[in-house]
Amino acid sequence: MTIDEVRTVCFVGAGTMGCANSLVAAVSGYDVILNDARDETLDAVAARHEGMAGFMVDRAYCSADDITAARARVSLIADLRQATSKADLVSESVFEALDLKREIHRQLDDVSPGTTILTTNTSSLLVSEIEDVVQRGDRFAALHSHLGSPLFDIVGGPRTTPKTIDILRRYVLSVGGVPLVLKKENPGYVFNAMNGPVLAMALRLVLHERASMQEVDRAWMSDRGAPFGPFGMMDLFGLDLILDSWRRPSADPSREVLRARVLPFLTRYVEKGKLGLKSGRGFYQYPDPEFQKPTFLGSEPNSPAVSGALLSALVCSAISLAANDVAEPDQIDLAWTAATGLEVGPFGILDQLVSDALLETLEQQVKAGLLSPEAARAAKTHLRA
Question: Is this structure's pTM higher than 0.85?
Answer without folding.
Answer: yes
